[in-house]
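Reopening: structure tokens for the adenosine-5'-diphosphate complex, inputs below.
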Amino acid sequence: MILGALEAGGTKMVCAIGDENGNIFEQVSIPTETPEITMPKMISYFKEKGIEALGIGCFGPIDPDPDSDTYGYITSTPKLAWANYNIVGAFRDALECPVGFDTDVNGSVLGEVTFGQAKGKKCVVYVTIGTGVGAGIYIEGRLLHGMLHPEAGHILMKKRADDTYGGKCPYHKTCMEGLAAGPAIEERWGKKAIELKDNQAVWDLEAYYIAQALANYILILSPDMIILGGGVMHQEQLFPLIRKYVTEMLNGYIKTEELADMDHYIVPASLHDDQGIMGCLELARRSMP
Ligand code: ADP
Ligand code: ZN
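Re-run output (same inputs, fresh job):
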């Protein structure tokens, strides 16, 4: 089976060809400009390869509800050229094949559940901490949508008493993204995140906020694994700190085998940064009749 995968991001569009087993045969990266410029390039790439279906994991917000009039649209994104753009319709018309569509983070969690370390798990949360914070949620065989799709990067947070930073989210100031995404780290400490590598106070505070978000996800969703990805999580010293704070914050209230083995419960992505594109291959497969 020849499947197309598109990880649609605000800065680049990663297009790949692969199969239903998660094999990736080739991929290209195309800069995200306007639909007028970028779409024809992607369409001609996929057209030449004779794909049987396309799966798209997309920056959002998007409309993933097949019963909605605006299904397949990128909706109210700050990337204005793409706001209210029917990306699924455009590909379906041009390629004449089935198109699967979901958020980028749901794509990543689907990749990990189908081909990675989360195979066989019942509920998995994939959190990306980069320019923004987002979470994909897989629950009992399907990706969670609800009325739209989860926006778990914007949960409201309790600030730590020693943190005087005002927060970066234009909607909520000190939500999770406003306190803990890469741009918030950089504004709070006045340096690029990567240059703060050796400053323990930075990563202790960062881990505290990530742990607070994870504790809430654990209490609400009861996941059996949490996977953390995105640029900020390249700071691997965060993992032990996050595990320690999550354990402290839950304070023994939930007793499970998973929580007793934190090193295998809160983990980095396992597919060498291909979890997103591999999830898109599975979205493509699932879109076929
Ligand atoms: P995006 O979210 O745009 O897809 P990334 O996941 O790479 O891209 O996130 C970019 C953000 O991650 C930047 O704001 C930067 O602060 C942060 N970042 C990138 N690389 C690192 C790193 N090695 N260590 C810490 N932070 C990083
Ligand atoms: Zn917010």
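DSSP finds nine helices and twelve strands in the chain. The two ends are 14 Å apart (CA to CA). Marking as resolved unless the reporter disagrees.
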